[in-house]
Amino acid sequence: MVVTTLRQNEAPGMDPDRITELYVKLGEAGAEDVICRAMEELASRLADIHEVQLFADADLLRQSARSIAEIAGKIGLTSLSRVALDAEYCLNFNDYVARSATIARMVRIGEKSLTIVWDYRDMSV
Known about the structure:
- The protein is mostly helical.
- It is built from four helices and no strands.
- Helix 1 packs antiparallel against helix 2, helix 1 packs antiparallel against helix 4 and helix 2 runs antiparallel to helix 3.
- It is globular, with a radius of gyration of 16 Å.
C-alpha cells in the first residue's frame, strides 16, 4: 500500500488596490485602524471556527464563515473571502468531510492572508 501525502501550499490572493483605496479614502490613520481591526477580527474568528467546528451548530459556523468572507473582502483578501464562502456553502449540506476540509483550507489561507497584509503594509510604509 502506497500512501501519498498532499502538500498544501496554496498562495493566498490579495487585491492590493483595495488596501490602497482604504488609504486614499480614510487617510493613513483611518486605514490603519480599519485594517488592524479587520485583521484582529479575522484572526479571532479563524481561531474560533477552527476550535469549534466539530461541536458548534451549522448555523453558528455558517454565520462565522459569512462574516469572515465579508471582512476579508473589505481589506482585499480575495482568496480568503472566496474560501469562506465555499465553507458557508459546504455547511448547508451534511457532508462532514467536505465541511472539515473546506474549513481547514479557510484557516490555512486565513493565516497566510494575515501575513501577506502585514508584509504589504510594511512595504508600503
